Amino acid sequence: MKNPKYKLLEHDCIELDEATLYRIQALRKLRTGVKIGELGGYIQSEANLAQDGEAWVTDDAKVYEQAIVSGNAVVSGKAVVRGNAKVLGEARVGQTANVFGSSTVQDFAEINGNAHAYGASLIRGSATVTGNAHVYDSARVWGNSHIEGHAHLREYALACGSALIGGCVNMYGCAVVHHGNISGYAHVRGHAVVASNRASIADSTEIQTYDGVGPSHGVLTAYRTKARAVELATSDFVGSLDEFRDMVRSKHGETADAPMGWYLLGLANLIEFHFSKLTESLDVKKRAVSLQ
Q1: Fewer CB within 10 Å: C terminus or N terminus of the chain?
Q2: What distance lies between CA 115 and its chain's CA centroid?
């Protein structure tokens, strides 16, 4: 190739997973600050790191098997990219992060800490995955989402918008979090949808999902907000319990001869009862602690 970016140093190599990896050395300056002659990390072959663009593998990072780093992406620290994984665009993979399987990290996304991305997962946009978080199967993290702590996103889960997911959250099924703060030991599962930046869920009891709701047999998700109120979300509605009741009365009525309205208003009452009992239980625990 004309004007190659780097060369492999055959005398500086390591064995890893039955593969031989070679340290790279820059042959030209890069806009990222890499200088001619500067040593980089380890790759198995030139197929792992594009010779064009500004992409680079630095420090003791390792890229091998069929993994590809291209565009202006950077893999640094002691990060590992392997399998059929791709790191593209302006993406960054650093510290001790591990990207493998057929996972893709692209755009301006970052994965660092001791985070893992694998399976057929996709991390894109300006999303960040850090801490000990795992994103796998066909889970997706988009937008400005931030995944941290020991959170696990799996199956077809989607975090997007400005979602903040941490703690020991387990998110799976086809669950979607557009916005909001999910933490603690909460489970967000099935077809749950959290679509408000007012959401603040710290436990599995603070989110409830109801399937087969309404004329379209859709999904209704009820969850706590930062103000400790209850919010409801469907495919075409996000609002408070009272706003949900008003919508139901307007669309379906509330008399016994309007069964859909009767049913949905009854469901709203059930949801309100569930969350009020949670509040009472929490108040009892707080009083018990204060008396100790």
Answers
A1: C
A2: 11
Q: How far apart (Å, rounded) are the C-alpha atoms in residues 254 and 263?
A: 9
Q: Residue 166: count other Cβ atoms within 10 Å of its Cβ.
A: 18
Element of type H or E holding 111:
strand 110-111
Kind of pairing between the strands at 19-26 and 6-16 = antiparallel
Read off the amino acid at residue 176. Answer: V
Structure confidence by residue, pLDDT tens digits, 118-173 = 999 999 999 999 999 999 999 999 999 999 999 999 999 999 999 999 999 999 99
* CA dihedral of 39, 41, 45, 46, whole degrees rounded to 10: -60
Identity of the amino acid at 173: G
Contact 173, 156 (CB under 8 A): yes
Task: Identify the DSSP state of 274.
Answer: H
- Tokens (6 digits) for 181: 């703060």
Per-residue burial over 13-47, b if 16 or more Cβ lie within 10 Å, else e, is eeeeeeeebbbbebeeebeeebeeebebbbbbebe
DSSP state at residue 118: -
